[in-house]
Amino acid sequence: MTGPADRLGPDKVKLGVCCTLWWNDDFPAIDAGISFGQAVSEMALAGFQGCSIGHKYPSDAVALKAALDLRGLRVSEPWTSTYFTIDKMRHKTIAAFEETLAHVKALGGTELVVAEFGASSHLLPVDVFANRPIFTDAQWDALTSGLHELGKIANSAGMKLSYHHHMGTGVMTRADVDRLMASTDPALVHLLLDTGHAAFAGDDPLEMARAHADRIGHVHLKSIRPEVVSRVREEGLSFQEGVQLGVFTVPGDGAIDFRPILEVLADADYRGWLVVEAEQDPHKAVPLEYAKKARAYLADVLGW
């Protein structure tokens, strides 16, 4: 069998990196003072082709595109939180999504990423496991119906919608992901496979990739440090505390072997973004150092 290096070439996948290596958008206090300009310059220097959008980026699409073009970068994805499981939030959720879509389209992007944050525990100073929501059947119906509407909006704009399973939310575990995939239309809703969030939740990202290979529309590659995961569980720590303790790290570090996961993607003829992500404290993990470590690891596995 040929390896991923033979089947995940630059004609099929693009390599991106999330700005969460440089600062944290959920927890702005996790910040070493790195500017937008320095961050995107370091992304390009490390050898990436694209990046996510963060809170330090220029809000004007023309200015942002010029800054990214200067460095040879494209937008890999934006982020839009959905609140379909909260009463009377459907209209606001759809409006926010349409605003994001217009912004991304102006930047030349084609990917849209969403996650349902109704009653999420991930932003709260509480046990992220014990306090994450368990959706009722009615909430599941509201979520899937809402995602179908967003998927239709994305498709009509020539863009692709991918759902991000996430710690502290109602779609956190493998069982949650299975239910979401079973209850949504493959033509409208794709899966964003996040290896770090899957492993943090206690599931095997390789098995998740195998189970839903034909639904994966976007990929976040991040690793975990198991000793920190154990501490979060045993001490009832919050998501923020886990991040600050270093629960996440980049490919080439931590506990996840990405080679078989990339094999699964290659077998499924995956085409799209492979985005390195690691929400870390930039005071403790020098962003450029970790970005280069991840890029070197991917160069070794992919051959480019």
Keywords:
304 residues, alpha/beta, nine-stranded parallel beta sheet, two-stranded antiparallel ribbon, 41% helix, globular
Q: Can you describe what's shown?
A:
- This protein is of the alpha/beta class and 304 residues long.
- It contains 12 helices and 11 strands.
- A 9-stranded parallel β-sheet has the order 3-2-1-11-8-7-6-5-4.
- Helix 4 (90-106) packs parallel to helix 5 and helix 8 (205-211) packs parallel to helix 11.
Q: What distance separates the N and C termini?
A: 19 Å
Taken as a percent bin, the fraction of beta residues is 15-25%
Q: Can you count the helices?
A: 12
Helix-strand makeup class: alpha/beta
On the 0 to 100 scale, the average pLDDT is: 97
Shape: globular
Q: Order of helices and strands, N to C?
A: HEHEHEEHEHEHEHHEEHHEHEH
Major sheet: arrangement of strands: 3-2-1-11-8-7-6-5-4
Percent of residues in helical segments? Answer: 40-55%
Instruction: Indicate the radius of gyration in whole angstroms.
Output: 18 Å
